[in-house]
């Protein structure tokens, strides 16, 4: 089973549901709201900098960085998501480039180097090889550039019965989407667990110097069972 084709089809089918959801609040974004969360906003100053957003979905975070002064490029494997991102950029009158490509093809498919490479929330589980991921990141950074990642803690998946440690064979599941307007329709996805050590060692092996590492006692998204406000 080709994981790229499976996941691409799954994300293509989810796009319209996500665009019309309260979870993503596209209407609010188009009136000027930011989709970014307090964690990443506190960490990054993007004004006047070039920013590459990996696995950007339909681009709300990418364009929110553009509103803060970044020159942005977003990439995603879903053609439907990228087309939606381009449409929203026009509606929002924002200068943002969007490219449909798999993360592992970014080095060849995306021109130039960037001050910042950014990835966030629920991204790396769709990738089987973090070493190749980290090498891709390193290949797109300018000298002195910054990679910033904000992700769900991998330990949370253990409570749902998944492995904490990497496994060669993916988890294959048919599941509905995570937005509040999800119906009974399911999509098939293939994903992989990655421990904190997997992430950190992949970045170190790619020559990326780790300046800081932080953990938080909250989730900015109410998308897991058992959370309280």
UniProtKB/TrEMBL annotation:
Residue span, Methyltransferase domain: 52-145
Keywords, in A-Z order: Methyltransferase, Transferase
Residues making up the signal peptide according to the UniProt record: none
InterPro entries cross-referenced by the UniProt entry: Methyltransf_25, SAM-dependent_MTases_sf
Superkingdom per UniProt: Bacteria
Pfam families xref list: Methyltransf_25 (PF13649)
One example GO MF annotation: methyltransferase activity
UniProt keyword annotation of Amino-acid biosynthesis present: no
GO BP annotations, alphabetical order: methylation
Statement: the UniProt record of this protein carries the keyword Methyltransferase: yes
Protein name per Swiss-Prot or TrEMBL: SAM-dependent methyltransferase
């Amino acid at each position: 089973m080709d994981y790229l084709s499976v996941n691409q089809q799954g994300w293509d089918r989810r796009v319209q549901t996500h665009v019309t959801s309260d979870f993503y609040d596209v209407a609010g974004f188009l009136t000027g709201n930011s989709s970014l969360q307090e964690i990443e906003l506190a960490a990054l100053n993007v004004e006047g900098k070039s920013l590459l957003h990996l696995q950007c979905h339909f681009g709300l975070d990418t364009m929110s960085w553009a509103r803060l002064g970044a020159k942005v490029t977003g990439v995603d494997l879903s053609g439907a998501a990228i087309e939606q991102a381009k449409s929203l950029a026009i509606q929002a009158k924002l200068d943002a480039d969007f490219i449909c490509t798999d993360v592992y093809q970014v080095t060849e498919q995306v021109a130039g180097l960037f001050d910042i490479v950014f990835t966030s929330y629920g991204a790396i589980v769709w990738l089987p090889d973090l070493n190749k991921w980290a090498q891709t990141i390193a290949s797109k950074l300018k000298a002195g550039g910054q990679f910033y990642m904000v992700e769900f803690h991998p330990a949370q998946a253990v409570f749902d019965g998944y492995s904490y440690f990497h496994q060669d064979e993916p988890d294959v599941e048919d599941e509905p989407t995570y937005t509040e307007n999800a119906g009974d329709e399911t999509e098939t996805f293939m994903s992989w667990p990655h421990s904190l050590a997997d992430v950190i060692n992949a970045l170190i092996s790619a020559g990326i110097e780790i300046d800081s590492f932080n953990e938080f006692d909250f989730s900015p998204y109410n998308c897991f069972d058992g959370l309280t406000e």
